[in-house]
Amino acid sequence: MESMNSAPLLEVRDLTIAFGQYPAVKSISFHINEGETLGLVGESGSGKSATSLATLRLLPATAQVSGSIAFAGEELLKLPEESMRRHRGRSIAMIFQEPMTALNPSMRIGRQIAEALQAHHPALSRHELQQRVLASMREVGLPDPERRIGDYPHQFSGGQRQRILIAMALINRPRLLIADEPTTALDVTVQAQILHLLNDLRRTHNLSMLFISHDLAVVSQVADRVAVMQHGEIVEQASAEVLFRHPQHPYTRSLLAAAPTMQTDRSRPLAAMVNP
User: Fold this and answer.
1) How far apart are CA 91 and CA 243, in angstroms?
2) Dihedral (CA of 236, 200, 95, 74) sign
3) Secondary structure string (H, E, C) spanning the chain
């Protein structure tokens, strides 16, 4: 969905990330409009996650970052750390890939969701916090929130833990959501439920999203536009409709050919990736 506003919500220009002599991301540029989802696709090691962490300034101090990351017209790479902390979890939020490592196993989930809210709204009373947490749990489809608010992460299924992370990410009503491989650890049925939930929440809150995945089939269900990364570079970028129907780059074509469909000849091996 294209924004009526000419200025993108997020605009990345000539972003380069290096770790010592190793360039992880090489002068990439992309943008995300208000209410739009950009799918960032590529194999492991292509630079997708480094790009997302750079957006929130969460890369280690050893990373050398140059270029521009502008959010709502504000240059994030030049912000003081205190100003950047106000963005994290409030105007820009992130869902991580593996909920069992992202959640604290020794802390009740209600408290973990509340901490995400309290960090940006310290004046809220205990009752207000609890009501907002319960509302957030209901919004992401967690069953019986009044009873389960005191449960620990291990008492939930993988799909339910991912819903907890989504509740934490969205409780402050961010404008941009970064979803880093949010369905990789889930089976296909639960994966479909999470994608459906993200699409519903995006429409409800006019949410912009950077959706990161190695799976073009997953991206096709959520993205308005797609950028394909290979070896730290964006090799192709187009609307989802154009890219899936008429891929231009050999690497994009190999990614599509490597994904089985109902029409795939099962007697033939899947296409291999292109690695020039």
Assistant:
1) 30
2) positive
3) CCCCCCCCCEEEEEEEEEECCEEEEEEEEEEECCCCEEEEECCCCCCHHHHHHHHCCCCCCCEEEEEEEEECCEEHHHCCHHHHHHHECCCEEEECCCHHHHCCCCCCHHHHHHHHHHCCCCCCCHHHHHHHHHHHHHHCCCCCHHHHCCCCHHHCCHHHHHHHHHHHHHCCCCCEEEEECCCCCCCHHHHHHHHHHHHHHHHHHCCEEEEEECCHHHHCCCCCEEEEEECCEEEEEEEHHHHHHCCCCHHHHHHHHCCCCCCCCCCCCCCCCCCC
Encoded tokens for 150: 């005191």
Statement: residue 169 has pLDDT above 60: yes
Sheet containing strand 22-32, edge to edge, reads 22-32, 10-19, 63-71, 74-75
Per-residue pLDDT at 264 exceeds 80: no
pTM, 2 dp: 0.89
Average confidence score pLDDT of the chain: 90
Tokens of 263: 């029409």
pLDDT the model gives residue 3: 42
Which pLDDT value is given to residue 234?
97
Q: Closest Cα partner for 51 from 76, 24, 32?
A: 24
| Tokens describing residue 249 | 């780059």
Place of tokens 């957006």: 55
Structure-block tokens of residue 108: 């009740």
Give the pair of three-digit tokens for residue 18: 């290096």
Asked whether 49 and 180 are in contact (CB, 8 A), the reply is yes
